């Protein structure tokens, strides 16, 4: 499929907006915004990208803010279908990538059920981009060979939490937590209970990709206290790679940096 092909009237394009800086969006994402007749935008989408929309384009805020403005997913699905059936070119602009905790597939399925064609334009997920903007690689040769991305929007003891924290600790991967600011203390405690050492490096990157980006770094047993006052959006990285956030925390042992074979 040609991601730069013109959007057809009556089509919905799900556009991943990346980590917050409009300059980090894809070329295809920008092209879709420029063609849109209507844009459904959430609060994590890069606001600077709206400057690319045509003067006649309608912008609809469909944010889901904790303790704030809230548009249900059902209503978002209805709006996508309604505007597409009206012959408009619809862009659903999200932060990060639409398929990484973005409910993008729910919207694709709703459109498919209604017979509305969709196009998915991936974005740079904040799970990788935000740590990178803070100088943290989620993998590093000789240190860690994988990473796990989890949602922290519910605490570990919540009945709806389907995560196996023991398996996460045993995986030996970097752990990237999205939407976990409110539950960071409980998440850290659960990881400690399952055997992750208390001195494991951790870092919280708040407002990644924005001019006021902030990084707080500490050991796992102290990261929740270090992140006091941080408000979403923020990404937490737990594991040896988090040392790169603040190089003065401690140097890597040279053996960790040797190429593994």
TrEMBL record:
Keyword S-adenosyl-L-methionine carried by entry: yes
Top-level lineage group: Bacteria
EC number: 2.1.1.107
UniProt enzyme class: transferase
All copies of domain Tetrapyrrole methylase, residue ranges: 12-223
UniProt keyword Methyltransferase present: yes
Keyword field: Methyltransferase, Porphyrin biosynthesis, S-adenosyl-L-methionine, Transferase
GO molecular function, one term: uroporphyrin-III C-methyltransferase activity
An annotated GO BP: methylation
One Pfam family named in its UniProt record: TP_methylase
Protein's UniProt name: uroporphyrinogen-III C-methyltransferase
Organism: Nocardioides massiliensis
């Amino acid at each position: 499929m040609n991601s730069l092909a013109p959007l057809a009237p009556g089509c919905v394009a799900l556009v991943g907006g990346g980590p917050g800086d409009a300059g980090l969006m894809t070329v295809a994402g920008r092209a879709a915004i420029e063609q849109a007749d209507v844009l459904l935008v959430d609060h994590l989408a890069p606001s600077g990208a709206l400057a690319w929309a045509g003067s006649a384009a309608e912008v609809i805020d469909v944010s889901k803010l904790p303790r704030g403005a809230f548009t249900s997913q059902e209503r978002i699905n209805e709006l996508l279908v309604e505007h597409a059936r009206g012959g408009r070119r619809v862009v659903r602009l999200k932060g990060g990538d639409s398929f990484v905790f973005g409910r993008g597939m729910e919207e694709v399925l709703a459109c498919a059920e209604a017979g509305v064609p969709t196009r998915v334009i991936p974005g740079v997920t904040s799970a990788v981009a935000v740590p990178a903007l803070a100088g943290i690689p989620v993998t590093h040769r000789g240190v860690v060979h994988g990473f796990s991305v989890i949602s922290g929007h519910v605490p570990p003891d919540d009945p709806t939490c389907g995560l196996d924290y023991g398996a996460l600790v045993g995986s030996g991967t970097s752990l990237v937590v999205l939407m976990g600011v409110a539950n960071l203390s409980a998440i850290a405690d659960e990881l400690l209970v399952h055997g992750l050492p208390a001195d494991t490096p951790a870092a919280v990157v708040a407002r990644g990709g924005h001019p006021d980006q902030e990084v707080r770094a500490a050991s796992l047993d102290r990261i929740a206290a270090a992140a006091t006052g941080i408000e979403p959006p923020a990404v937490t990285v737990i594991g040896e790679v988090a040392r790169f956030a603040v190089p003065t925390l401690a140097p890597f042992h040279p053996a960790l940096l040797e190429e593994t074979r």
